[in-house]
Amino acid sequence: MQAIIESGFLADLRDGNIARVDRDEFRQILGLMALTPKPDSLLKFIRIIAIPSTKKFIARDHFVANIKEGARAKISYLGDNFRQEFLDKIEKPAGKNSLRCHELLKPSVDGSIFAELGGEKKVASTLAQIYWLMEQQPNGEDGTMLNDGRWNIFYIPNTAGVLRAVCVFWSGGGWGVDAGSVEFPFRWDVGSQVFSRNS
Known about the structure:
This protein is about 25% helix and about 25% strand. The protein is an alpha+beta fold.
């Protein structure tokens, strides 16, 4: 905080004509994403989600098809690709972090989404983050993730470290989870949500 005070940034903010400041341009200078989408934008920023710290996360222990009453997160379906590429994954403990959530404004392939979010290295999230979000809506309640059959899209490295698109959707009384190659020319639907690392 002292460094911010000594830098003079706060004095500049105090002295500036707020009516003539473009907030999105100011955010860009700070390295932040715009609040309002550009006219040709694929994504509209929705919110930042705070994620608590996590312990060692063993995917196989958490991602289990189970829609019985009392399940921590009801899961109705695990796709073959997800099972093959992610169930053996073990993630290290992580401190508090956050995700960005965007709405997809146009049908799009993964490459275009990456480009708008700043590249593949900026989008990667974790299985622990997905599972925590599922726990917040264990029975498909309204919440951060879409619960009406539309896609919640995450980008996560598989057990080999290759980035994959992981989609989560509510269906059949539980969350469905599947994965696919980001090279595949599949177009995600308008209204889907895209989650990415907030950094």
